[in-house]
Amino acid sequence: MSRIPRVALKEVASIDRTIVEPSQIKPGTLFVGLENIESGGRFVNVRPVEAGELASSKFAFTPSHVLYGKLRPYLAKIARPDFAGVCSTDILPIKPGQELDRGYLTWTLLAPEMIALAASRATGANLPRLSPSALEEIQIPLPPLPEQRRIAAILDKADALRAKRRAALKKLDELTQSIFLDMFGDPATNPKGWPVTRVGAVARQIRGVTYSKGEASNEPREGYLPILRAGNITDGQIMIDDLIFVPAKRVSGEQLLRKNDVLIAASSGSMDVVGKAAKVQYDMEVAFGAFCKVLRPGNEVDPTFFASFFDTQHYRRRVSKLATGININNLRSEHLDNLELPNPPRELQSLFAAKAAVIAVWRSNYRRSLSLIDALFASLQHRAFRGEL
Question: 272: buried, middle or exposed (CB in 10 Å: 19+, 13-18, 0-12)?
């Protein structure tokens, strides 16, 4: 680190908090909330908003900014937009100065050392935030501008390789759904005329754990159990990089996740989150919070077939119509129980499960490959941060 001079961020960049009132937000403006930035900097489900959809003030940003999620900075929600729009005020738009390359700044802020430093300076027990002034004081390494651009180009290329591997994984996920539709048809129209049952007739619904904010801990503690929330369900997977912990006495045995459970985000302020579902792959000593529900299938239905139903566009469309609320969208218990589910012969469901299992092996191999690429990227990022790249 001593090879590269370090400067406070405020010396080479500015935090641009240009307020946009709700009445000033034009229809079609792109909106970015924290849920639209993945850990590590990828945008997901960014969409234009309608007139009057946003009820509070936002920050404006352009393609020249870096967007920095100040809420729970340890989540590393830092991204480079290639579009203009407005963002949540829990996101700080940073404008690099003439001596600072935007790509280099992004990768520097995403370096594990910088994430740890930001997290250590955040304040607030349950919802830690990094203040703009604290962010401005963070020291960053500042090599000459040509060197910044060289480092950013190397990391961009390595990250592009990771993106290609993730895209391949997504294609495998789509293949499973394609086989489902080919074998069983679209559940919306049931073109093959299968008998129809209700979800509640083949799966038991389990409510999540209720707890007070004062009981929750951001760190593991003796006598506490990890708990998942709605935001932990992403792209059909359960993410465990942002857990909180609650007293074990709050958790019943059936509120621990079991293999073949379908975990559903039942309540959220975002319609992009509510209704998201993921199959649990193995028994876990992990519970789930009150904003989630679990559907635990019985012997009447194949678990893989059952879980794949919740990956269909038909299910997503039904959720968008059923989930209600003003500030919070809720998918109620009766909504889930009354969902109609095609019920083809069990042997056909089992054949689908066998095909899905083969794809799951491919997916597992791709994930291992991605893990190796991620490790390589982390090594490059660490060397760049220390001036050794």
Answer: middle
Asked if residue 152 lies in contact with residue 385, where contact means CB atoms within 8 angstroms, the answer is no
Q: What pLDDT digit, counting tens, does each position of 305-364 carry?
A: 999 998 898 988 888 888 877 777 888 889 899 999 999 999 999 999 999 999 989 988
The distance from CA 341 to its chain's CA centroid, rounded to whole angstroms, is 27
**CA angle 29-35-36, nearest 5°?**
45
The Cβ-side half-sphere exposure at 37, using a 13 Å CA radius, reads 28
The Cα 108–Cα 111 span in angstroms is 5
CA distance 343 to 326: 35
**If you ran DSSP here, which 8-state letter would residue 22 be given?**
G
Mean pLDDT of 149-156: 93
Separation between Cα atoms, residue 105 and residue 9, nearest integer Å:
9
Token pair for 330: 């809720």
Token look-up 């218990």 returns 333
CA distance 174 to 1: 44
pTM: 0.65
Banded pLDDT at 2 (limits 50, 70, 90) = very low
Measured distance CA(161)–CA(157) in Å, rounded: 7
Contact 348, 206 (CB under 8 A): no
CA distance 111 to 385: 7
> Whats the size of the chain, residue-wise?
389
CA distances from 340 to 36, 265, 267 (A): 31, 19, 21
The angle that helices 346-385 and 102-110 make with each other, rounded to 10 degrees, is 110
Query: Is the Cα dihedral 338, 339, 345, 347 positive or negative?
Result: negative
Coil/strand/helix, residue 307: helix
